[in-house]
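WARN retry 2 of 3 for item q-0093 after timeout on previous attempt; input resubmitted unchanged.
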Amino acid sequence: MRLLLGPDEPFVSISAHSTQLQKHLPPVDTVDATLKTKNGVTGTISISFGSTFKGTGYSVACEKGVVNVFREKVKVGDETKDVANERTGVPPEVRTWGEAIMAGRADPRQSPEEALADLKLLEAMLRSGEQNGQPISLRHQIPPTNLGCKVPWTTLL
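OK item q-0093 returned
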């Protein structure tokens, strides 16, 4: 989500509810959260490994329209494009890591700072869920670095 919003919209607070739906996935397998950026933009995220729902999708509503991503399809307005989807982020991330090693320089998307910023969001979701949705302030949230996006989201809409 940090990547989608870019460096000018860091998150400042998060409120979440969490639960365990499946006995074999303790302590939490589902989180539903509302996030707020420094400019007052709000959004939601729902992550569940315990639900019977078997899909991965993203929707981003912007001033000029909506971007929907579901499996191998990206829809912007009335236009739909097919995209490669390996069903998990692990193979592309390992491939990028290997390419960085071969090139002799780190990929900024895989820096410890980026990982820590993402981990802070997940931890805040879980802490808020433990506190029955109590908002958690996000301090020291770094903006995403130049993450190498080939097409900025702002050009899509």
